[in-house]
Structure formats: C-alpha cells, structure tokens
Amino acid sequence: xxxxxxxxxxxxxxxxxxxxxxxxxxxxxxxxxxxxxxxxxxxxxxxxxxxxxxxxxxxxxxxxxxxxxxxxxxxxxxxxxxxxxxxxxxxxxxxxxxxxxxxxxxxxxxxxxxxxxxxxxxxxxxxxxxxxxxxxxxxxxxxxxxxxxxxxxxxxxxxxxxxxxxxxxxxxxxxxxxxxxxxxxxxxxxxxxxxxxxxxxxxxxxxxxxxxxxxxxxxxxxxxxxxxxxxxxxxxxxxxxxxxxxxxxxxxxxxxxxxxxxxxxxxxxxxxxxxxxxxxxxxxxxxxxxxxxxxxxxxxxxxxxxxxxxxxxxxxxxxxxxxxxxxxxxxxxxxxxxxxxxxxxxxxxxxxxxxxxxxxxxxxxxxxxxxxxxxxxxxxxxxxxxxxxxxxxxxxxxxxxxxxxxxxx
Length: 409
Known about the structure:
globular, 2 domains
C-alpha cells in the first residue's frame, strides 16, 4: 500500500471516529429537548469557550446589559467557558464547557451568539436563532473553501454542519458578503450590521487609550505598538504554534526605530491568537526588555487596538481594524512562502495592501523609518472603498435590535 493510500485510509478512519463521536454527543441534545426554550435566554461563546469575554459577542452582551439596566429588555446571558476563573460582568452566568452544559443551555436558549463554530454534533431546535459573528473582518489568510486542496476534509464537514444551523451571519463589508459564501460554506442570510467588536474603535478609543495605560502603570504619554502574530499550522494533523523557534522580531531595534521615527517613549505589547493563549502557549522571544509586555491573557483584542498607536502582525485580520481608525499598520512576514504552502494562497497580494511589508528585520526597520502618513491615508481610503467597509460603531445596537424584534435598522 502506497503512502497516499495509507494517508487516505487514515483520514477516513479519523472522519469516521469524529462522526461517531458527534452522533453520540447529539443524543444529549435530544434528551434536553424535554426542557422548554426560554426566549429571554441567550447563550454566547468565543473560540469554543477559550477566548473569554471578548470579540463581537462581548459587545453584543454589553448592549444587552445596558438595555437590561435601563429596563428596556430582560435577557439572561449564559456564557460557555473553558475556564470559570475568567472575568465577566456579574450579570452574566458562566458555565463550564462540558457536553451536558452545552446540550442543556444551547437546547433551552432562544438565541445563540458565537464567534466560532459550535461543537460537531450540536443540535438546534426550530424555535431558536443562531447568530454567527465570526472572529475576523477583512482577512489576509484564506479560510474554508478558499484554501483549495489545503482545506482538510474534516474541516469542511464540520464547517458545513455548523453553517446549516446558522440563521444569520454578520457582515461589515461587501467583501465579507461575498467571501463568507465559500469561506464559511454558508448559503443563508448575511446581514449588514457591521462588526460589533469594531464598535469600541469608533466609540471608546480615548477611554481605552487611558484605561489600558493605567492598568499597566504607564503614563498617558507612553506610545504602544501592538504585535499580534497569528497561529501556524492549518491542517488537522499539525500543532498550532506561532513559531517552532524563537521569535525573529528584533524588539530592541524595533522600539528604537519607533522612537526615532514617531517620537516619544514606545512599548511593544505582545498578544497571541486566543486559541494559543487558551492553551497557555507562549512566544519565545529570547529577549528581555521592560518595554516588551505580554498581554495575551487579555480576552479582548479590540480594546487593545483602541489603546495602540501602531500595529504589527504577519497575517492577522486585526490589522484591517486598526487601519479603519488610521492606526499605522506594518506586516512582518518572514515565513511568507512557507505560510502560503501550508495555508493556501492569501486573499490579497500583500504588497498591494496599505501596509508596508517586511520579510526580515532590516526591511521592517526601513519600513518604519520611511513610513509616510499621507501615503498611508490615501491607500487606506482607496482600500476601504474597494472592499466596501461600512463600519460605523453601531453594529451592536443593530444586532440587539435583531434579537429583540427580528429586524435591523
């Protein structure tokens, strides 16, 4: 038997086991149908429970809690978490991410709001609504069928299964309207609400700018570059890690150049992808500096973006969100060809994006040194028009209007 045949057989066995497990799990949902659906109960999650109180579900929850306090609504929010020590508002009930907790709470809630796939085998009832916020806006890295032959068969099965449960997918751009069809393998309704997690960028930037510095004992005059590398490995057989070796960014030189080009005292805040942070993985920097602070445990990326003065990543979609409010964005992709080989062709030619692209430290330093604010602003305006971004800071209101009345204004 050749290597290809062995690989195909291994995949078939793996898929068969996953399907059997999903069937067994689905039985718990059928059992829980003896309980009625509570229209005022909303179940939320982020990254299968590991992400904590963040991303778009957080901002939908904030709007709901606001209306509850004003007496306009009376919703109960239940949040599925892997770690019950994570901090949430007192009004939100945290439940541990177990099969029976998922089955009971999802089976009895009128509405689900999540930013990632449900567990394979989840069952939804006819009286329930499932709102998928997803966890990205404009993307650099391909997702779903856009990955072509590199999209694992099992991932396709799970994605298709979940998408059949979804009632609404939220969108913040015409680009997402089209991308989600193959990206999420979804043919249902896409609603132009905007992206709830982007609301903080438009409405609370000054507040978060002060708050985050205060929490870390920094002066309001301190400037911050947020460094948010994404995970590596896209197949079911690979471990998801940031780098197998130490980080290759030269943070000392980076901070020095930021200070020379933009002035002031700079810090770099490191934030890993939530799926890595939940596993307590850490990026090995090999460097010690009081100016390099790991903020990976913070569950909300966008409040960190709101507090930042510059943004650095390799392939994270969050760079587009920083770009929406004019924050200078830089790309450091020292493994570009290897990443494409593993993940698939990127959505964009990176050199045609508004962001300067570096493949090594020397190019990164040069890009900062030569950064042109006016050129960046012009490229940003052109890009926003091309992809049809319509974020305005009111997405959370529209989503809650949808939950309350089944409509979006």
